[in-house]
Specification:
By secondary structure, this protein is mainly α. 65% of the residues lie in helices and 0% in strands. It contains eight helices and no strands. Helix 1 runs antiparallel to helix 2, helix 2 packs parallel to helix 5 and helix 5 runs antiparallel to helix 6. The chain starts with 8 loop residues before the first helix and ends with a helix.
């Protein structure tokens, strides 16, 4: 799905919601891979197996509850997508920094332990962050689309 300016946000929102659910409950994928995969797909970028495998420990720094995978995945996507548009390294890095700042303003933190609804408990159901993931990926998509079309 390579998106144009004519792509319906409603269709993109539906794709994001359905894909998050499938990747979480169908594949048991983490938030970093889910966000990276969706963003790259929406921009027509195919991921190689090494990139996919690299996300296995990127859900709060391997469960350490540090930087959230909903930040890590989009940061990887920024590097991959913006480089594919021919951007120089400084512009990509500046865009990543701006993304982190905007994400923190929107969601209140970059840290998994602070973003996760209700924190952490051994009795938590799987994929407690599904709704947050959908919102964060929609935010990340809009941010990237705006950055690229400037």
């Amino acid at each position: 799905m390579i998106l144009s300016n004519n792509s319906s946000m409603e269709g993109i929102d539906k794709y994001i919601s359905e894909t998050v659910h499938e990747m979480y409950y169908g594949n048991d994928d983490n938030c970093a891979l889910t966000s990276l995969y969706i963003l790259c797909y929406l921009f027509g970028i195919e991921l190689d197996s090494q990139t996919i495998v690299s996300t296995v420990c990127m859900h709060g720094a391997g469960g350490y509850r540090a930087q959230c995978g909903l930040v890590e995945g989009p940061l990887m996507a920024i590097g991959i997508i913006c480089t594919s548009y021919g951007w120089e390294k400084k512009r990509v890095v500046d865009t990543a920094k701006t993304f982190a700042s905007e994400f923190e303003k929107k969601f209140g933190s970059l840290r998994c332990m602070e973003l996760r609804p209700g924190g952490f408990s051994p009795s938590d159901p799987p994929h407690l962050c599904e709704e947050l993931s959908v919102r964060a990926i929609k935010f990340s998509y809009s941010f990237l689309k705006d950055a690229i079309h400037k």
